[in-house]
Design brief:
The protein is mainly beta. The protein folds into two domains: about 30-95 and about 140-214, Immunoglobulin-like, CATH 2.60.40; about 100-135, no CATH class. The chain contains three helices and 15 strands. It has a five-stranded mixed beta sheet with strand order 3-15-14-7-12, with no helix packed on it. A four-stranded antiparallel beta sheet has the order 2-1-4-13, with no helix packed on it. A two-stranded antiparallel sheet has the order 5-6. A hairpin with a 2-residue loop joins strand 5 and strand 6. It starts with a helix and ends with a strand. The model is unreliable at about 130-135 (pLDDT under 50).
């Protein structure tokens, strides 16, 4: 009897320890790839032989980068929505340091110039500059985001806040800010394309684009 019980226990252990490995299909049936096009206004910008994209600023304050991704295996498409993402970042930050403005300052228990206490009398003026404001408001990255003052770079959610994202479509598009103050500057644009943002096989493609504003 004891021997039979031992055999049953061994059999149960074998059954519980044998888990069937789940096999996921390839992310893209014919291989994952993505092609990006840069345009300014109605003009498609092609790279010159040295690999740089040259954009002549003509008053329009943004250019576009547009992607075309290969399609996923149907396993990675949920209710018609592909599990893909394109993430954009750059090395160019904007801080406007030449603008200043002056605003009147009022005392909490100050004087008023009417009996209804609607028009307070200022006790002085305060001048603000964009440099001073940047201590409370971080500079703007030209792809369209700011890093909060007390941002936690080591937190798991950090990658979802850094950069801008276009998800769940095969044609990601992002507007990139430019202006006349950037003429003569070189911008490095970083793009990470992720095929399958859920469980299973994942493919990530990283690209860099060098843009010179003329």
């Amino acid at each position: 009897m004891i021997k039979k019980i031992q055999q049953i226990i061994v059999l149960l252990l074998l059954l519980t320890s044998c888990e069937k490995e789940r096999i996921y299909p390839p992310t893209c049936p014919n291989g994952c790839d993505v092609k990006y096009t840069i345009s300014y206004g109605s003009n498609i910008i092609s790279p010159t032989p040295d690999g740089y994209y040259r954009i002549k600023w003509e008053g329009l304050n943004y250019f576009q980068i547009m992607g075309r991704m290969t399609e996923l295996d149907p396993h990675y498409v949920i209710n018609g929505v592909p599990l893909v993402s394109a993430n954009f970042d750059s090395d160019y930050w904007i801080l406007i340091d030449s603008i200043r403005f002056t605003t009147p300052m009022y005392s909490y228990l100050g004087w008023f110039n009417d009996n209804n206490f609607n028009n307070p009398i200022p006790i002085g003026n305060m001048t603000y500059t964009m440099v001073g404001l940047s201590k409370n408001h971080s500079p703007l990255n030209i792809v369209g985001y700011q890093v909060p003052k007390f941002f936690c770079f080591s937190c798991p959610y950090a990658p979802t806040i850094i950069g801008t994202h276009s998800s769940y479509n095969y044609h990601p598009t992002q507007n990139i800010l430019i202006d006349n103050e950037m003429v003569g500057d070189t911008i490095t644009l970083f793009v990470e394309t992720v095929f399958n943002t859920d469980l299973g096989e994942r493919v990530e493609i990283k690209n860099e684009y060098k843009i010179i504003v003329l």
